[in-house]
Amino acid sequence: MCVLKIDLRSGYHQMKIRPFDIPKTAFITRFGLYEYTVMSFGLTNAPAYFMNLMNKVFMEYLDKFIVVFIDDILIYSKTEEEHLRLVLQKLREHKLYAKLSKCEFWLDQVPFLGHIVSKGKIMVDPSKISSVMDWKVPEVVKEVRGFLGLAGYYRRFIESFSRIAKPMTSLLEKGVPFIWTKERQAAFDELKKRLTTAPVLTLPDLTKSFTVYCDASKEGLGCVLMQEGKVIAYASRQLRKHEVNYPTHDLELAAVEIREQIKVGKAPHFCEDEQGTVWYKNRICVPDVDSIRKLILSEAHDTAYSIHPGSTKMYHDLKEKFWWHGMKRAVVEYVAVCDTCQRVKAEHQRPAGLLQPLKIPEWKWEEISMDFIVGLPRTQKGYNSIWVVVDRLTKVAHFIPVNTTYSGARLAELYISRIVCLHGVPKRIIFDRGSQFTSRFWEQLHDSLDSKLRFSTAYHPQTDGQTERTNQIPEDMLRACAIQYGTSWDKSLPYAEFSYNNSYQASLKKRHLRHCIAEGAGHRYFGTKQERSKCSDPTLSGMLNSRSRWCH
């Protein structure tokens, strides 16, 4: 694209004044009275009248290949001579004369009205804002108004201009004392920085469609005009006094009102916040965009950190952070068509007969249950089973890979390092009657730790139904990992443990870990919180509570 710039010679002087208006232009000199016979500089209506003349002369070419401002004519063409001849012909017809020394031809870019215009781009003219960095801190309101006048001229280049300038514009209000605060200094420095680092904007193509994004907040209204993903201009304004009290939806309507003023081009597309809502009850309001919602559902169901939870768990996990209309139905439908879930999960129903659950513990990790998942394929590290340890109160579980040949001493080492070091010594432990737990060594270990052992009834898994049900979960998860990732089950086990403990628990009405991450675990010398409160000796009770707070 070629750019040409034509400047008229003393533009105002090329217009004659009507004879009966000539006396109105009289001025006094020492040589007598003089009158203008042509339009003079300095008359109030001179700019508007001359601009009106230029618009009439070039009416048929405006915004097609020509831009006119007073006596400056800017021509943009794909070829060198395509439109120049038409413009010169118009000037000849209306007897308007250009000054050759001020005209510029065949330019790749041209300065025009404080901007640098080039092929498809427009930027701030560096020569016009070079003095901005040396601009002294305003000391009176007039200096503030002068700075904001310059900055406001280039506001289309500055995103959120109104919000940034708000501390300074408040000084222009009637009755506001001039006090230069740190907040106003920060706004002054930020505007100087934005002016000297203004972005390059794209020139609009009126034959193509536009996209207008608008938004509102308690600080102001803002819009951005874009075309094909490129910024054409920014627009913003501060809230009026009565608008500060508007609710969110009314502010969004005010932003739409600004948007309606930019209806240009072909089929403009307008975008604003869906129903003006970004947060709903402290949850992210997900817009009605299928790709975004599918990504969220996939992250909550298919990844190694979630491992195909059921629809109920998945919904409760998601609703803590996200919301959209029909989210529960979307979750149910997503899980229902998951091929992996259909292949690995069996239907779990409550066994027939009267259930007699064990008494609920008073404190977390006060009572635990243990069991083994056996019959698994042997891994490269020699594991062929999983030791499942479950806290009966919080339902938090640990899945420890082991081998069925491990001795009681080896299991004791794992028990100390994986359970006791994290949660303290439990008061009661429920086992099945496996040989690992009935050994003399195991009994002596727990006797020294002051833990009571309780064995479930032989061939009656309902005694420890919690662990039996928990065992089914890692089995389903590991089968899903084997299908989806093809890795060895011991490598997927940490992800299964994380997913299980970080998922929603129906009996707790929240995640397992929410209950686990709280006050410290019990200890045989400190006891739980309840035990410390029951201590009969006030001196000992105070010492235990003080030491417990120091430890935790």
Automatic annotation (TrEMBL):
BP terms from Gene Ontology: DNA integration; proteolysis
The residue ranges of the Integrase catalytic domain are 357-530
Q: What single Pfam family name could you report for this chain, choosing any that match?
A: Integrase_H2C2
Task: Give the UniProt keywords, A-Z.
Answer: Endonuclease, Hydrolase, Multifunctional enzyme, Nuclease, Nucleotidyltransferase, Protease, RNA-directed DNA polymerase, Transferase
**An example Gene Ontology molecular-function term:** RNA-directed DNA polymerase activity
Question: Sorted alphabetically, which Gene3D superfamilies does this protein's record hold?
Answer: 1.10.340.70, 3.30.70.270, HIV Type 1 Reverse Transcriptase, subunit A, domain 1, Ribonuclease H-like superfamily/Ribonuclease H
UniProt xrefs under InterPro entries: DNA/RNA_pol_sf (IPR043502), Integrase_cat-core (IPR001584), Integrase_H2C2 (IPR041588), Retrovirus_Pol_polyprotein (IPR050951), Rev_trsase/Diguanyl_cyclase (IPR043128), RNaseH-like_sf (IPR012337), RNaseH_sf (IPR036397), RT_dom (IPR000477)
Q: Which SUPFAM superfamilies match?
A: DNA/RNA polymerases, Ribonuclease H-like
**Name this polypeptide is given:** Integrase catalytic domain-containing protein
Q: Tell me the organism.
A: Paspalum notatum var. saurae
